[in-house]
Amino acid sequence: MKHDISLMKSILGQNFTKRNRFTRQCIGESIIVLMQNKIFEEITISDIVKKAGVSRMTFYHYFQSKTDALNSYLHEIIELYLEECSRSIGIETFYDAAHIRHAFLFFDQYAVFFLTLANANLHSLMIHAINEYITKLVAPVYPHSVYDLYYYGGALLNVFLKWEADGKKESINEIVQVVCHCSNIE
Fold this sequence. Notes:
The chain is an all-alpha fold. It contains ten helices and no strands.
């Protein structure tokens, strides 16, 4: 089944102008920068808006909380990934070595973001985003049980985080081979 990127955006609730997108990304990136030196719970909205160069009014126009801002940034990354996939390897399948390789290489660009969330024990944000993607976009069109899909998504996240945290000692081909072996993908 062919996927329509505009449909995916509406399902994920992301339909912003370039300017809105940029502002929201600046806020998300600012939180990550602040988290390099400060515990997430200690970061204030004032810290975030100062770092992002926006007003409190702008922050609250888009977000209810700093967690909401991180969720939004995470969904933005997923949307960028879907757009990239639709232009390159396609989005008709996801359960193969080529897709795993592509996903790891794409998300590697955001390794600091993901590792910062992991180091702050915010795994639930990442797994929730993956589960939402699986529930809304993958499950309706792929012939796997939702449990298989949740298992696969969680496994990919954990392997990706471990690979990044360990400094990517294995090559991309080696890590893809490990994932394929564990997931019975030929």
